Amino acid sequence: MDVADAAEQIAPILREVREEGAEAVLRWSERLDGVRPPALRVPAEQIADAEAGLEPAVRAALLEAIDRAQRAHLDQRRTDTTSVVVAGGTVTERWIPVERVGLYVPGGRAVYPSSVIMNVVPAQVAGVSSLVVVSPPQRDFGGWPHPTILAACALLGVDEVYSVGGAQAIAMLAYGVDLPAGGRCEAVDLVTGPGNIYVTAAKRALRGVIGIDSEAGPTEIAILADDTADPRYVAADLLSQAEHDVLAAAVLVTPSAALADAVAVEVVRQVANTKHVERITEALSGVQSAIVLVDDIEAGLRVVNAYAAEHLEIHTENARELAMRVRNAGAIFVGTWAPVSLGDYCAGSNHVLPTRGSARYSSGLSVQSFLRGVHIIDYDQAALRDVAGHVIALAQAEDLPAHGDAIRIRAERGVI
């Protein structure tokens, strides 16, 4: 199935949520998730109870991940700049945060409190004033999102959380709905966060009604390695991403046949000891995963640049130097001690990254994703007078005489 196929299937969901509101959201949640949440908005006490019930080790890990993400994202803040174009004429670029943002946190095969952190932290650092988190209802938890997701929201101070996932969640965020118990989920300006193909199809269909960060596809890891790489680490890192989904892509690019053989043996050995054997095996056996032999590292660099993977690890001599030559990747992990799983949780970087080759033209989630650059143009009378002739000439060249008249009328009145 591709996104176009999924778009046909979710079209009735989007239409019914727009026309019927919360009742359609609840009906589709029950039909698709197998559970009707007790309420759309998660009560404050449910969120507080989830935080109180956190295992100490998980709490400490979440707090550390939050702290590191905040440190890295604080340095991404933009400052307003004013350019003096001419005497009396300035252009100021002002950075203004989006007002209201919906943050999608997936459910399904795994639990993703880390996605709460990766979406919320840059939005908060950017200065977004209204944040709402949506996450699918879980039958095992009384129709509420997973408690660890709710706990992560509590640790970040997010108190507007809804128990809804899938295309119906994106539609609710786009259109806004009145809540059966009173109150309202107001429409958002921007939706961020990865989801399944139906979430992606809904984001594509509603783009324009809302802004979106990207159309996320299955996760990808590419590893560029030479004969200095340790096959145990390479194999472990390939498996770590294959664990996500049967459609996950795991690709090793190397000029070393010996390393390729050793990694293949090591993969078989390590898979047998993992929890999700069938899922990983299917992902590694799919056409999206491979070991690619190249003539040399330069050829390997061309391959990984063409592939533009979501995650790229470099296991070579002079790995940092080679990493700085990569042009296309969502995130680049340098050397033995920076595996992708570090970036998934505690590196400080963001793990919401471009997939399916879109790293050729787009970036991962950052503070910038939640900011809009607005130009403020301030010219005085003399500055306008000096450039008036050029504006009129360009208006005539484009056959837009009213553009020139807007300047000329000022001149005729003696203002310039």
3D structure, described in words:
With 416 residues, this protein is α/β, with parallel strands linked by helices. The chain has three domains: 3-212, Nitrogenase molybdenum iron protein domain (Rossmann fold, 3-Layer(aba) Sandwich); 220-363, Rossmann fold (3-Layer(aba) Sandwich); 382-412, no CATH class. The chain is 45% helix and 17% strand. The chain is built from 16 helices and 15 strands. Strands 5-4-3-8-9 form a five-stranded parallel sheet, with helices on both faces. α6 (147-156) links the parallel β4 (130-135) and β5 (161-163). The longest helix has 19 residues, at 56-74. The radius of gyration is 25 Å and the shape is globular. The chain starts with a helix and ends with a helix. 44% of the residues are buried. The model has no long low-confidence stretch (mean pLDDT 95).
List the helices and strands and how they pair.
Blueprint: H1 3-20, H2 22-33, H3 44-52, H4 56-74, E1 81-86, E2 89-97, E3 100-104, H5 113-126, E4 130-135, H6 147-156, E5 161-163, H7 166-175, E6 177-178, E7 184-185, E8 190-192, H8 197-206, E9 211-212, E10 220-225, H9 231-242, E11 249-254, H10 257-271, H11 277-285, E12 290-293, H12 297-307, E13 311-315, H13 319-323, E14 331-334, H14 340-345, E15 371-379, H15 381-397, H16 401-412
Parallel strand pairs: 3-4, 3-8, 4-5, 8-9, 10-11, 10-13, 11-12, 13-14
Antiparallel strand pairs: 1-2, 2-15, 6-7
Our count of domains comes out at 3
Shape descriptor reads: globular
Task: Please report which band the strand proportion falls in: under 5%, 5-15%, 15-25%, 25-35%, 35-45% or over 45%.
Answer: 15-25%
Summed up, the helix count is 16
Derived from helix and strand composition plus strand pairing, the structural class reads: alpha/beta
Helix content: 40-55%
CATH superfamily of the largest domain: Nitrogenase molybdenum iron protein domain
Strand count: 15
Query: Can you tell me the residue ranges where pLDDT is under 50 for at least 5 consecutive residues?
Result: none
Radius of gyration, taken over Cα atoms and rounded to an integer in Å: 25 Å
> What's the CATH topology label of the largest domain?
Rossmann fold
The CATH class assignment of the largest domain is Alpha Beta
Task: Name the strands of the widest sheet in spatial order.
Answer: 5-4-3-8-9
